[in-house]
Amino acid sequence: MVIPANISGMTKKIAISLPDDIAEQIKDQPNVSAYVTEALRRRLASDEVRTRLRAVGYEITARPLVDIAENDALSNLRAQISFDGT
User: Fold this and answer.
1) Are 42 and 6 spatial neighbours (Cβ–Cβ below 8 Å)?
2) What is the dihedral of CA 44, 48, 53, 57, to 10 degrees?
3) Does residue 9 fall inside a structural domain?
4) Inter-residue contact 55 to 47 (CB < 8 Å)
5) Contact, 42 vs 35, CB < 8 A?
6) Dihedral sign computed on CA atoms, order 20, 25, 29, 32
7) Per the structure, how many domains does the chain have?
8) Is 7 inside a domain boundary?
9) I need a surface site. Which of 18, 23, 63, 85 has the fewest CB within 10 A?
10) Mind listing the pLDDT tens digit for each residue in 63-77?
């Protein structure tokens, strides 16, 4: 029988400190603990994927994908301008 982690009933109370802007954004959540738990589970899963990708040779960087997309768009625009000769 598999018991989902969020229904297992095993919890540990801890105290954390958050920057003011983050605390302000989550203060109205009906269950802050559940909200933070979900965010941490996603981060842990992401870390696991990154670890597995590195193990098979992929290089993972901290560069945000938004920066990559913006730079690619700028490169494409520059290429079009250069190609058009304008």
Assistant:
1) no
2) 110
3) no
4) no
5) no
6) negative
7) 1
8) no
9) 85
10) 665 566 666 666 666
pTM reported for the whole predicted model: 0.57
5 assigned to some structural domain: no
The domain in which residue 77 lies consists of 18-84
Asked whether the predicted pLDDT for residue 83 surpasses 90, the reply is no
**What are all long-range contacts of 5-14, with beta carbons under 8 Å and residues at least 24 apart?**
5/41, 6/34, 6/37
User: What end-to-end distance do the CA atoms of the chain give, in Å?
Assistant: 67
**Six-digit token string for 40:** 């941490």
b/e per residue 43-53 (b: at least 16 CB within 10 A) = eeeeeeeeeee
- Residues 39-69: pLDDT tens digits? 999 999 999 998 998 899 887 776 665 566 6
Question: Does residue 12 sit within a domain?
Answer: no
- The predicted pLDDT at position 8 comes to 59
Which residue in 43, 41, 36 sits closest to 13, CA to CA? Answer: 36
